[in-house]
Every structure is written in C-alpha cells, then in structure tokens.
Amino acid sequence: MPDAVTPELKHALKQMIIDECDKDELSPTDIQDDQALLGGDLDLDSLDVLQICMAVKTQYGVRIEGNTAAQRALKSIDTLADTIVRQSTP
Amino acid sequence: MIYLIDSYSLLNTIAPNADGLPDLKAIIQRWHGERIRRIDRYIQLCVAGGLSCVAGRSLPENTGVYLASRNGAVATSARAMSSIEADGQLPKPLHFVNTLGNSAGFYLTQLLGLTGTAVVCSAEQLSFEAALTHACLDLQARQCDTALVGSFDETPLPVQHQRRRLNITDSQAPLLEGSHWLLLSRHAQNARAKLRAPEYTESLSQALRREDTGVQLAFSPNKAEASKLPGSHTVYNPVEGAIPHGSFSGAALVEQLKLPCGTHVAREGKTYCTVRWTSA
Amino acid sequence: MKISIRAFEARCSLGASVEPAVTNLLSGASSPRQHTFDNLQEPVTLPYFSAPPAGDFYRAQASCLNSLLERAQLSRTERRRTALLMGSSSFDVHISESQYRRELNTLGPEQALPMPIVGYGKIAQHLADQLALGPHRYAYSTACTSSANALLYAARLLQQDQADHALVLGCEHLNATSALGFYGLGLISPRGEMAPFDARRDGLILGEGTGALLLSKPSQTPASERRWQLAGGAIGTDNYSLTAAHVSGKEIAKVIRAALADADITAADIAAIKLHGTASLLNDEAEAAALHQVFATLPQGFALKPYVGHTLGACGALETALTLGSLARGTLPDNPRALGDGELAVPLLKEKRPAQPGYYLLNCFAFGGNNNALIIRDQGANE
C-alpha cells in the first residue's frame, strides 16, 4: 500500500483511469495532476466513477463509498492520490 | 406491403486456433469517426452492422429497431461470472452493464438518433427470423414506417471455450461471428425488393411451393427432408467445415437477398420458417 | 382488436401461487430476507425478496404454464395455435453459475468454463416442445422490460392472426451476476427498504419470481373469461444514458401517450397506475416528471416492488398478474408506509381502495433506455 504521494503513484493512477474507462486515445502524460477528472475535458460520467472506485478498491484496498465521497476523491489525480495515501496509512 | 431498402452482412471466420479477432473498428469508423469507448465485441458487432446497413441515411426518429442474438453477450457475461466465482470480486460496473440485453441497442439507437420501438429477441436457429417477424408485425400494423432489423453473435476467445458452449466436438471446425441486417420500409421509394413476412410451418412440403424460385436452405437437409424438396435449391454453406451457429440463418438470408426474387428457408427443431421476396 | 387475458399465475416472495400472493399483498405482509454471497473475498450480504422454493427451475416454469393451459382447457389443436413468449434478464444464468462453480472446484480455474450455458431461446424452445405449442416461440432480453415486451408482442401476434392464444412467461431467479452487478452499481438500498417516490428513497431491493399469463383472441375466448383485456401498449427508446432515464421524463411521457393512443383512450380514462417505482433517485424522478406531463391530475397510483422486490425481467408479467389478482378481489393495493415526496408529487395509495372497472396503466422501464407502457382494461366481474 502506498504510504506517500509520489510521481509513480500518480502515473499509475492515470494509467488506471485510462484502462478502466477505455480512454485508449490518451497516455498518462496527457492528464495533468490537478486537472478536473469530472465535468472537464476527460468527459468521465457516473459509470466511470463507479469503475474507478472499484479499481481503487481492488488495487489499493481503499474504499471510496457513496457519491459525495467519490466526487470529492475524484476531483483530480492529486486528490485521488491523497485519498489513497491517507486511507492506507495507519 | 413491406419493402426491402438495403441489407448488410458481416461474416467472419474464426480459425480453430485463433488468438485474435478481425478488426471491426475500421468498419465503425467509416460511419462514425469518433472512437466509441466502453463497448465490447458484441456491441461492436451490433454497431458495425447497423451503421453499415443504414449507410449514412437519416432515418425517421420513430424507426423501429428489431434486434436478435442467439447467444447474447457471451464474452462479457463470462468475464463478469469469472470475476465473481473465480476471483471472488464484484463484477466491474462496465462489464455488468454490457451484459444487459439493451446495451448494444442503446449505442446503436443513440448513434442513429432513434427513439421509437426497440426490442431484442431470440429464437435459437430462427433468431434472425424472429427479429424480422417482429418488424413485419409493426410495419403491417403501421406502428412504424421504417424498420431496422439486425442479428449478431460473437465467437469469444478462447475458441475451445466457445466450442464447449456450443457443443461442437470437431476441434478443427472453424467458428463464425457475424452481424446481419435489413432496412425495411412501408414505402416503395428506392426499394430493392418486396418482402413477405416470415411464415412458420411444421412441414417442409408446406414451407415451400412449386412456384418458389431461388430457393436456398439455411440448413443441410436430411434424407427425409431432401425427398420432400419440390424443385431445385441451394444450401447455404459459406465456410467449408463450419457448423452453423449464432446468427447463421441471417447470413444466409442476406446473402440470398442478392437475387431479385427468392425464397429462404430456415429450420429449428420441427419448425420451418420461409421468407419470400420479389423485385420491387 | 382487444386481446383477452384469460388466466394468470404468479410466484414470488408473497407466495407460491397467485392467490396466496395476492392475499399477502393486500394484507401488506412482506419483508425482504438477507442473502449472503459468501464466496467473495469480502462476503456481501444484501436484502433480497426470495420466492418459495419450486424445485427444478425448468420443470417449475413448465408446470406453471401448463396450469394456465389446463385452466383454460385448451385442446391439443388449440395448443398448436398457441405462441410462447418468454422474458427474462438472466434466464438460466444461475444454473450456468453453479455449473461453473462446480468445475472450478473439480477442474480448477484453467479448465473451468465460465458462462457454460448459452442461447436465450433454449428455454422457450424446450417449454414449447414439452407443452406441444405452436411455432412462435420467442425469448425477450431487454433487461427489466423483457416480459412487458413479451406481453405487448403477444397481443400483436394475436391481433395479426399469427396465433389464437399466447402464453407469456416472465421469470427471474436469484443469481450472483445480477445481484452483485446491481450492488456494484450502488443501486441496492443501504437501508434495506424500498420507498418509491419517497424523499427517503435510497435504492432498490432485488427479488425473484415468475409471472405467467394466457392471452387469447376474443373470438377464441369463452364469454366468462373475457373480463380482462390487454387494451394497448407501446415501447419507446430513451438513449440519454445507459443506466438512467432522462430526468425530464420526456421519452417516458412519449411512450405512455403512445400506449394511450394504441388503446384508443385518453389520459382521463385511466383509473389507476401500477408504477414502475424502482426507488432509485433518478428513475423515480423521471417517471414522476413523465406522469405530470401526461396527466392533468394524477390518477391513483401504487407500486408493487416494495412487496416483491425488483424482479427485473420478470416484473412486467409478475406485476401484471398481481395487479389483475388484486382487481379480481375488487381492491387496489396500497403502499401504507409511503410518506410521499413533496417534490415528486406522486402520491401512492395510503390505504386500500375499491377497484373500479376501467383502464389501468402499467409502467415498466429498463436499463439501456427501453421503456414499455401497457394498458389493461377491467370490464368488471358481471359483464
């Protein structure tokens, strides 16, 4: 489990979003750390949110439950990485 | 009266040892430039076939969409099942929604801007004919003026898994995947042929009449059946050694529709289904 | 031509057959049980409306259909003029799952075959062979509208003389794919209570069951069995989103209006509505919006899913059978626990009301934007 927000973690999260949401046309470098994941250029919808949350749970053991928590965690790659590190650090 | 405006058929042979499937994206991209994400092979077959049959026409919003599949979204259903049973995980949301019956039609109707009747039906070897029967019911009752009819079935990899599902014991038999479509109208404008609604009977001698021409069977007749065939006929056999499965009868009908007038007969159990057409 | 509904049967959490089920429905006796999916790495327990066990799945469907044929005393010749239309969202996937589970244990994950049983139409084909029915044998796979669509096309087949009678079967059996799929989408009520059109609604509860109906052309129906008609219906497509109706309700309103037109009646003729009412946030909003567009004053409404759960592909046939069973007793079902929601303004019946002869609207909507509305006519017991 990651214990710090690192560039590697953020890169892995970008790749995870590309894979899970079938955004093959993108590469991790196309997504900025602070770019809005929802409602912005990425055009992710509620189904993508569920898909990403389930992948985060499987890969990092971190639960993001409920719509409000998901919206908060998935603001950007930065907030997603923070959420994962905060919840996996005892 | 029901008129045939256009037809389209895509039939791919999947070799017994195939480790990949033919590309469908180029076919879709011809009609829709933007890549459609989150669609699996089964939905791609629907979209590729449907868009190719419509071929850029603008259809009335209340065009009926009559879809059939004999086996449905097998690959994605298998993935959802193995997530749960083998991995002990919840099925991924995108996998689960793509196992549902309407998902393929959702993407197609969205791309074509259609909001009328849509239905997905299945009837074993007469699945394509089932969709056609439903379209004819609605056209004849004037529920719609235009109908898009399509049947599609995938051959998921690995091939030996699908052979077991289909109970095909010949390990050298190639499998098929396909997507077969008709565009029908109540109006004669630009029509290729006049089509009669499918007729169902329990005897081959009733399924065919002496005056039928261009008779093609979508099945190999057994001895008893062969003796009852009134005149000349052909048997649809597009790929040597392939055992009919999936939407095979749809492939047969669309192929025979290249003739200006003809007769198509398919069989399931004791039931024969005949479709006849004449030039418009 | 208005098609007669001569006989119906239901099996669901309320009872093993339609009579006890309707008795329990009208006495308000129903609550979900818990089902645990314990071969997950983290077991999941969900509320679920289980139906009484019925033994072998295939035999249970056959005996249910056969009971309708016997009730109507259809002769061998009449059976040959009978179509079979079956709707389900999962068919026999629960049997596929258990075969796969067995193979995982005996052969291991490399050899075990996931989704071993394919062919949506297999069950209808076998049932029709077994019951010696005619050649029209269709399976419908349009998720939650599957058996509602089967009902509509049964009527259309008969109207066009393709058959004299039609058996319609909607069935759904507990399976991990559907239950965990809905859970994964966050659609199962965390509170474990279905509260359609209520401000407290937080999702649905799934259920299993079977609904079966026998339809006949009026000319082939004895006068004593002509009380109920399938007077009309329509299907429409809302391709706004794969998993939710457009909250404007525009496409749902369109399908309801098309159903009214098909039955040759107006909105004012509707005596009551059997709501779809899944208690999910957006879909109730869309259904409410549509009703306010179609009806100047909303007729009485009731929802059956709080009693039997969302039975997915079976709900069209099952909820139609339960509605007819209630009308047969002269009573409209109620939802006494519903508080209502000021915003949605779809008041559900708080207490049982006498049912009058007239037209009833039955709503049924599905994932993937497939919407169905049916109109049933009750001509009253004495006509």
UniProtKB/TrEMBL annotation, chain A:
Gene3D superfamilies: ACP-like (1.10.1200.10). InterPro entries: ACP-like_sf (IPR036736), PP-bd_ACP (IPR009081). Pfam families: PP-binding. It comes from the Bacteria. Residues 7-88 form the Carrier domain. This is Phosphopantetheine-binding protein. It comes from Gilvimarinus xylanilyticus.
Automatic annotation (TrEMBL), chain B:
Residues 61-153 form the Beta-ketoacyl synthase-like N-terminal domain. InterPro entries: Ketoacyl_synth_N (IPR014030), Thiolase-like (IPR016039). It holds the Pfam family ketoacyl-synt. Coiled coil: none annotated. GO terms for molecular function: acyltransferase activity. This is Beta-ketoacyl synthase-like N-terminal domain-containing protein. It comes from Gilvimarinus xylanilyticus. The lineage of its organism: Bacteria, Pseudomonadati, Pseudomonadota, Gammaproteobacteria, Cellvibrionales.
TrEMBL record, chain C:
GO terms for biological process: fatty acid biosynthetic process. GO terms for molecular function: 3-oxoacyl-[acyl-carrier-protein] synthase activity. Residues 1-378 form the Ketosynthase family 3 (KS3) domain. Keywords: Transferase. Pathway: Lipid metabolism. It holds the Pfam family ketoacyl-synt. SUPFAM superfamilies: Thiolase-like. PROSITE patterns: KS3_2. One of its GO terms (cellular component) is cytosol. It comes from the Bacteria. Belongs to the thiolase-like superfamily. Beta-ketoacyl-ACP synthases family. This is Ketosynthase family 3 (KS3) domain-containing protein. It comes from Gilvimarinus xylanilyticus.
